[in-house]
Amino acid sequence: MQINGFSKLSKKEKINWLLQTYFHNETEAKRVLTQYWHNDAKLQALHDGFIENSISNFFLPYGIAPNFKIDNQLYTIPMVIEESSVVAAASKAAKFWLDKGGFKTEILGLTKIGHIHFLYSGSTQELIQFFRRNRPLLLEAIAPLEENMKKRGGGVKDLNLIDRTSKIDNYYQIEFKFETADAMGANFINSVLEEVAEKLKILARHQLTGNLNILMSILSNYTPDCRVKAIVNCPLEALETNEMSGIEYARKFVTAIEVAEKEPYRAVTHNKGIMNGVDAVVLATGNDFRAIEANAHAYASSSGQYTSLSHAKIENGQFYFWLEMPLSVGTIGGIAGLHPLVKFSIQLLQNPSAEKLMKIIASAGLAQNFAAINSLITSGIQKGHMKMHLNNLLNFVNANEKEKQIAYAYFNDKKVSFSALKKLLNRN
Prior knowledge:
This protein is 48% helix and 20% strand. The protein is α+β, with helices and mostly antiparallel strands. It has 4 domains: 6-48, no CATH class; 62-109 and 227-378, 3-hydroxy-3-methylglutaryl-coenzyme A Reductase, Chain A, domain 2 (Alpha-Beta Complex), CATH 3.90.770; 112-220, Alpha-Beta Plaits, CATH 3.30.70; 385-424, no CATH class. Strands 3-8-10-9 form a 4-stranded antiparallel β-sheet. Strands 5-6-4-7 form a 4-stranded antiparallel β-sheet. A hairpin with a 2-residue loop joins strand 1 (62-70) and strand 2. Helix 4 packs across helix 12, helix 5 (124-141) packs across helix 7 and helix 8 (246-262) crosses helix 9.
């Protein structure tokens, strides 16, 4: 049903319209919404202010994964995710690598990108000369916006005119390169771009013979030069299991990674597993997981074929497993200073810089990927996952405590399935 002026309604009025329009049992629907409200009205008002038309809160589990040794420093990592076994898998992988040197990381770049997209109908050579002549004035226009960012070591590092007329008629860009210190920097970048676009329009009217038409000014969430690497390694004998020697295990692991490198159908699922670890930490620290997902998958496709973000090799009796991915995050700005659990997460991680947070997140992604591949080449993915999922199934059938204990004992050495559980508990 269409409604006009919805955003102008009070929260109570919005809820009443929603319940009356879409729900037969208004009392039950209202109970579902209100049971997730904070008892602290001030805290609830804070959450309501994060987005528009807020009517309740949507809870996700907040877990922790201890024993992460990253660059010889121990971390307990916060993870926000609804998928069973992710936190357990990351914790298990972290503990496995704890006495083998842990995770070693490296920042491969911190450059972020933004563009002014525009059309120009005149001579390309005239536009090039115009840009070169006015480049100092464009930089001067953003000096007030850069002041605080420069104090933190960031700011505009470069800007260039890019000719894209081979792709779209009359289409050009001014590409900016930024560093944004401990901020993710979206607001800063977009403010700079819009300020320069306005200056560009004024200068163009007086100096260019052709028509310059600004299309848009916006940061790019693709940041291939803001990138991090995380790696683990150990002697082959440290990988020995009850079923396989260290070299057999390593060869199988390396081949599994090679499949993800060469086969897109596998690569998508493989990288999804990496993002299980990455996104969980990104959410817990109040960063933009949609931008980070898009960035990672664009990077995985940069060769022209979608491929694995992680890699493995055997060299000189050592097993090496590493992850390299673009990652643009911040520890200040956004909701980092507002959301109580985000602030808790940052403190739990010992108040890291944006660079350190990049390293922590990449390590969590690598740990999650290691745990997944380890399961796939040994016991299979479902054994551990379904044991964790058993709790969800028990809650779904409203099992009591006695029934839960019966189910835990029964499925200790058996595969978990919903049909088997219903049969065990006499649920039709």
